[in-house]
UniProtKB/TrEMBL annotation:
Residues 320-341 are annotated as: Disordered. The keyword Cell membrane applies. This is Lysylphosphatidylglycerol synthase domain-containing protein. It comes from Pseudomonas knackmussii. The keyword Membrane applies.
């Protein structure tokens, strides 16, 4: 490529895209604000308080157990990254770091928990930046691969019934589900049979894992989403079918990601109310989701904050122990990273 090619002005779409993206973001926020205003006006807040007061111990224990299982599954996302990034941190150090990152990620956004805290804590334990990037990549891929194939299966099977007011219908959902399943199969095929094992996207190298590791990714990712939905199911007092709760949670989670609102606050509630309006009262739905946020978001954040302080205090001692052991792949250079498992 000669110098004249590199100095060519950007195409019209590329120049206008930042403005278009900003306009679309504002439009989405306006729509979300409208949904939240409508939600607040149509909720019987006395019913919400009454529902919250009436939760029995059995419901709270079941929801808590499901939340604990979900966090446990998620913590093993970074355990997968141990082999993928080829580092020698023991699992007993990986699990608490991942728990802290996940709790902060859910409550304060991926930039805080998923990225900043991961780099902070793992670097203090002795990992290189390239290894931390691979661990983070593995975690993100595991989460969304689980989402892709599980959502695809649900849409294809017709387990989700969109409200009549929505533009998308059953057939469109089935087509979307089929596309998601194809995407998951393409990933599995690439991991098992592709001769090219890495790509560079925006200056970041992504290495394909083995087919076996990819299958474990999909299993763990889907399990985490299923357990999250189980928490909501219990907090709705099991009054809505579990497959429907799972599907709505997955749809609302995407809406929350698009809105860039930490914890999808208000967005998840609006989607659940819209899709469960004919089955439960608005007050019961909102109360269940408030309970879900307490059990799945706030309680873990409390323990994660304490654990973060402990990790910071012990980081120097733990790093000394880790540096006494040879790092796998230390003899290889960053320009020629090891092949992923």
């Amino acid at each position: 490529m000669n110098e004249s090619d590199t100095n060519k002005p950007a195409s019209g779409w590329k120049r206008r895209w930042p403005l278009i993206k900003k306009i679309l973001t504002y439009v989405f926020f306006i729509l979300v604000a409208g949904l939240l205003i409508g939600l607040a006006r149509n909720v019987d807040w006395n019913e919400v308080l009454t529902t919250l007061r009436n939760y029995d111990a059995k419901t709270l224990w079941m929801a808590g157990a499901a939340a604990f299982a979900s966090y446990t599954v998620y913590c093993f996302f970074d355990v997968l990254g141990k082999r993928y990034a080829q580092h020698n941190l023991p699992v007993r150090q990986i699990l608490p770091v991942t728990f802290v990152c996940y709790a902060f990620n859910l409550n304060l956004s991926a930039w805080v928990g998923g990225i900043a805290l991961r780099y902070r804590l793992y670097s203090r334990l002795g990992l290189r930046a390239s290894q931390i990037t691979r661990v983070f990549t593995m975690s993100v891929l595991t989460n969304w691969l689980g989402y892709i194939w599980l959502a695809g299966l649900m849409f294809v099977m017709g387990w989700i019934t969109p409200p009549d007011s929505w533009e998308i219908g059953h057939m469109a959902l089935r087509v979307l589900g089929g596309g998601l399943l194809v995407l998951a199969l393409v990933y599995l095929w690439a991991c098992g049979f592709s001769k090219r094992r890495h790509w560079t996207i925006r200056k970041h190298e992504i290495h394909l894992p083995s087919l076996r590791l990819a299958a474990v990714q999909m299993l763990l990712g889907a399990s985490n989403w299923a357990l999250m939905a189980l928490v909501v199911y219990f907090m709705l007092s099991q009054k809505a079918p579990y497959p429907e709760v799972l599907g709505i949670l997955m749809i609302s989670s995407i809406a929350g990601v698009i809105a860039h609102i930490p914890a999808g606050l208000g967005v998840i509630e609006a989607v659940f109310v819209a899709m469960l309006a004919g089955e439960l009262s608005n007050g019961a739905i909102v109360a269940g989701l408030i309970g879900y946020r307490v059990v799945y978001f706030l309680v873990p954040l409390f323990f994660a904050t304490i654990l973060y302080v402990v990790l910071e205090a012990r980081a120097k001692k733990l790093r000394s122990g880790n540096e006494a052991q040879p790092q796998p792949g230390d003899e290889q250079t960053e320009e020629h990273p090891p092949t992923a498992a």
